[in-house]
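Open question from group meeting: does this chain pack into something compact, or does most of it stay loose? Before anyone orders reagents, we agreed to write out a predicted structure and look at it together. Recording both the input and the output here so the notebook holds the full record.
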Amino acid sequence: MTEPLSNAASLAAPASVLSVSLLNRLVRERLETAFPLCWVAGEISNLTMAASGHAYFSLKDRSAQARCVIFRNRVQLLGWRLENGQHVEARALVTLYEARGDFQLNVETVRKAGVGNLYEQFVMLKEKLEREGLFAQERKRPLPAFPRRLGVVTSLQAAALRDVLSTLKRRAPYLEIVLYPTLVQGGEAPAQIVAALEIASQRAECDALIVCRGGGSLEDLWAFNDEAVARAIRACRLPVVTGIGHETDVSIADFAADRRAATPTAAAELAAPERAALRERLSDLRQALTRRFERRLEACGQALDLLARRLIHPGQRLERQGERLESLRRRLAAALRETGALGQARLARIGQRLRLARPDVPARRARLERLGERMRHAWGVGRDRKTALFSRLEASLAHLDPRKVMARGYSLVYDAEGRVVRNSQTLEPNDSVTVSFHTGQAKAQITLVQP
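Structure tokens returned:
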């Protein structure tokens, strides 16, 4: 232990004095490192079940004791109840509770002393099948609500069979019972239990199965901790209820079953509903149905009364319709008279307007002839005036006609761009010009320009 202490000292080297929390942490780490998981045997004392579900107790022998704690999730996996005075073997981690500085064992699982290898096999098989999902809740099948025939897998000599049969006779005497006999203890029991389950599954003559056995030691119940039995229960086509041993006894078959009962009697109670309870429920349902039927009749009666008040005799209905038809006829006649009067008045107004708008044809014709005569006279006068004006303008234009002037020997000169040359200064030697005469044109080239 010299080197671990030197390591602890080296970890604490930066500080001159260790704090209590640091010291406890270092001690806890050393303890957990030095002691792996181990089995510790002793007697349970000072057992306390906390409200959190954790269990606190001490393991003691003749000369020493150690504080222990087993947490809730581990307690639930035990399958049996811890009690003071029990001699057990605990698989635990040696550690230190830092908050109080208490040396303690963190227990992972507990087995009864003397069970040893059997319990280890139980735990290992349970963990294996659990990892495979064989115990998954979603694989559980519901029990039939109203079974007619139940199968019982157990020994013909078992006291559990008498308990199951007496319970079923008391609760549900109408049920048919089919027995599938098998050994429930010993080396040959697992194979016979599997065979009985397979026969029941193949026949499918029952609504559910009860697999049961009375109490005993772990060795006595070991046939129901067999892997083949657990797989046969899950492979069975019928829902399976197990009632194996006493309330504290838990087997692999219980985990594999669809429902687990604490005892064979409890298994029979789970599988078969009590006849008195069924009768009571039937009576309640009958009363509820009667009340609902009565309320329905009352509602229908009220609806019938309402419809009866709304129902009218056909003669009354015809009389009312005749009165309404007569009223409509009178309204139609009045409307027609009013419409005719309004139409006649409107027609009279239109006729008056038409008479006022009618033209005086002879007067209009005489006036049209007078206007035509005046138009013809005005046209003749205007034409003579325009003719005289046109003659005067024509004579005036004749004096300004350049062709008249060019006929006397004058000509027009155009430059290369077709513009009239009015000044000799706009021309230069060698420029090309066009000379236009009274008759025809000629191209020329400037050789000399004089001002």
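Observations to bring back to the group:
The longest helix spans residues 314-357.
The first strand starts at residue 38 and ends at 49.
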